[in-house]
Amino acid sequence: MIADPFPPSLGAAVVTPNPHNSLSVSVEIEASFADSARLRLQTSGEPPDTTPWVALTAGKGTLLALGLLEERAYTTIVDLAGPEGRASATADTFTTGALPERLREVTIATTGTPTHPLTLVNGGNLGTPGLVYAFDRQGRIRWYRELHEYPVAPNPAKETKQQPNGHITVFVGETSGFEPLDGRYVELGLDGSIVREYEAAGGLYTDSHELLLDFEGGALERIHLLAYDHRTMDFRPWGGIDGALVAGHRLQRLTAAGAVEFEWNAWDHLDPADWIEPPESLRNQPVLDFEHPNSIDVDSDGNYVVSWRHLGEVTAIDGRSGDILWRLGGVHNEFAFVGDPLGFFSAQHMARTLPNGNLLLFDNGVRHDPPQSRAVEYALDLDARTATMVWEYRPDPPLFSMFVSGAERLTNGNTLVGFGVPAHIAEVTPAGSVVWSAEPRWRGQPAIFYRAHALPSLYGYQRP
Q: Cα–Cα distances in Å, from 173 out to 155, 159, 176, 183, 241?
């Protein structure tokens, strides 16, 4: 005699608002004859939102719903899967809450259709506490995190990205990367919970410009960041004041436990005399840095590529010996620029080595005449020491972002370019066509951000 099959069935589903994010809920379920479950959430006028499948333990589990719209009524359907097939059951209807007041004052005008469903930015000038948020193709905010746990300070949320484990990291602290002020990186889980903090080793200050995390088999393996300390100097030979407190940076590679595995000290390799980038007023401050690194990248050989804004230079550093492999731009430029109508880059940000070996960066263009910003890609011939421009994107009419900003190459070959100060974002094809643009505004003014990143999913990392 064959036993009757027992299809999955839902016993209970309890919806709980997310304390970190009004656009998210968790649903605790109990089911029979089910080993995994997911949610389908429906609200009027929108396609269903579907969560990933989650394994259940003894028929129990908690499902997280992310990326919902504010103040919307949602119908929840629980899909169950078990040895005898699948089943679905309708759970309670719930209504999402309102956005925080300052986010309700953010408007994001968009045109076109982007490759990615979401864009991640920090709230650069949206007040305190620190804030990061993501918006969709239509400019609607779908995820955010206010960092109430950290001291209120001017513009405390800075470098923000999704790491390879799917979590979001954000720098919190008052420092701009050179002041004697503490700060740290915070790792946020998908639900907005604080997972871990990251700081420089050796009692140094933590720089606010870049954090890279490496994972192996899902476990944290290495931490890459910038650190700095200070020297009191007579900076008059370089246009500054006597008694200036000058920061110099170190590139650190740390183990998962925070021990130093590799350290490269700019004081040993770089010279204040090589500061060539305006504005000149930065030189005569009582506290300053002479090189101002603003990005780090690791190439396929494990070597570092570092952007130094004040030097107008991108430097490749051997990730084992610390030797300088090449220097592009600045006083010690080793390359001939070929085919670049602007001749060079200036005060650049976010230098990235592409899979084909080319270098992509955001050229802030402070020394261009007139000043103008762009994304630009160079093919580097390391033997001939040539940097041939193979692609650029310059808006028409031109845009100028004196500080911050970045360019990110997407897997489909398009490039996401974020002009941080005028707060303009564009996805651009290799042919230079803009397929999508966004302009975040807060109280009618540009909603400044450090970088803009494509965010394929809130539920885990996918290469954008």
A: 8, 11, 8, 4, 27
